[in-house]
Design goal:
Low-confidence stretches: none
Mean pLDDT: 87
Strand content: over 45%
CATH architecture: Beta Barrel
Radius of gyration: 14 Å
Length: 156
């Protein structure tokens, strides 16, 4: 796995993802509404190409560069509470979640190599995306799935 990024804040829904030398790769923002009971959408922006990914918690959709898709179409099969399948375009990914909720990994369903990982590295979290994942839309999708999966467990 290459491309380790670190969250700049313990709350992964707000802050930045930075390289080991501190270079910001993505910004992430979410505003809480009405006493923290509802969230506004979480917006992830790639600094390198301005690609925008959105998790709209209230409307239950994800969006990449303005293309919106409901979670029900993206989340194809929930195998167990620790394993589920996701798909944006043609590639289906399987998300694996550790039983103690400190690590999430994503790999193509018909592949053997992880393309994304979110893991707890106290005091914050680290996210890695494989260099093999060179399609920017698929890369954004994997990042959104990892943030979504952590958010649903931790904040939902």
């Amino acid at each position: 796995m290459s491309g380790y990024l670190t969250f700049t804040h313990k709350d992964i829904l707000n802050g930045s993802l930075t390289t080991p030398n501190g270079l910001v790769q993505y910004t992430i923002s979410t505003e809480k509404k009405l006493l923290g009971m509802k969230w506004s959408p979480t917006t992830v922006v790639s600094v390198s190409n301005n690609m925008t990914g959105i998790i709209d918690w209230a409307r239950e959709i994800m969006s990449i560069n303005g293309v919106e898709k409901p979670w029900k179409r993206l989340r194809h099969h929930v195998v167990t509470r620790y394993k589920e399948d996701w798909m944006w375009n043609e590639t289906k990914y399987t998300l694996y979640r550790s039983s103690d909720y400190t690590e999430w990994t994503v790999r193509p369903t018909y592949g053997w190599t992880d393309v994304g990982r979110l893991e707890q590295r106290k005091p914050t979290w680290a996210l890695s995306v494989s260099a093999e994942l060179d399609d920017e839309i698929e890369r954004m999708f994997v990042i959104l799935v990892l943030i979504f999966s952590h958010g649903i467990i931790s904040y939902g």
